[in-house]
Amino acid sequence: MARLIVYYAHPGHKYSQVNRLMARAAAAVDGITFVDLNHDYPRMDIDVDVEQQRLLDHDVILFQFPLFWYSTPSIIKEWQDLVLEHGFAYGSGGDQLAGKRMMLAVTTAGPEDAYTHRGYQHYPLRTFLTPLEQTARLCKMMFPAPYVLYGALKAPKTGLAEAHVAGYRQLLEAIRDDRFDFDAADTMDIVQVDNLPITMEA
């Protein structure tokens, strides 16, 4: 079984349309570690020793968040700045995370067609996630395709939220049980509920 930790970040958690439901589902999955960063660190006083040990204790590090101004919520950036230290995560002697995987579960307010060169966001979603992908590479971690829900604000009314949350739970359970096909995910741009690369039960 893979050791999976989910880091959830949403400063507007109680107003969330989808992420709140995803977080609830993730926290209920047996055999994984769930961390609500905004709850644990309301003043952003990240405990570096605790967080570095968590990274050492897990194989897959998954960040769940809504896209905020084309980036992560600020607490994830603070977490990265403090936890991914030189000599630990990168640089001379910084190979403690080598071989692990960093994965994302991201929601966007805008629809899928907005994240194209012709759409009003002008770029594909993966372009906005490039700093996180490069962070993973610098730390010698693998970066599989993110699990994405576009149009999250309207998803509850269209019925997409329920399917997405169910798919998220399947994703987490598959990673935990070594049934998620990371090789297939590496060839994909994004992962969605209708194209989850999950193998059958062993």
Describe this structure in words.
The protein is an alpha/beta fold and 202 residues long. It has one domain: 3-Layer(aba) Sandwich (Rossmann fold), CATH 3.40.50. The protein is 35% helix and 13% strand. The protein is built from nine helices and five strands. The chain has helices at residues 19-27, 37-40, 48-56, 74-83, 125-128, 130-138, 155-158, 160-176, 182-186, and strands at 4-8, 33-36, 60-66, 101-107, 147-149. A five-stranded parallel beta sheet has the order 2-1-3-4-5. α1 (19-27) links the parallel β1 (4-8) and β2. α1 (19-27) runs parallel beside α8. The longest helix is centred in the last third of the chain and has 17 residues, at 160-176. The protein is globular.
Secondary-structure-based class equals alpha/beta
Q: What is the mean predicted local confidence, pLDDT?
A: 96
Q: Which fold name fills CATH's third level, the topology?
A: Rossmann fold
How much beta, percentage-wise?
A: 5-15%
SSE blueprint:
Layout: E1 4-8, H1 19-27, E2 33-36, H2 37-40, H3 48-56, E3 60-66, H4 74-83, E4 101-107, H5 125-128, H6 130-138, E5 147-149, H7 155-158, H8 160-176, H9 182-186
Parallel strand pairs: 1-2, 1-3, 3-4, 4-5
Q: Which structural traits does this protein have?
A:
Rossmann fold, single chain, 5 strands, 202 residues
Question: In brief, what are we looking at here?
Answer:
The protein has 202 residues and is an alpha/beta fold.
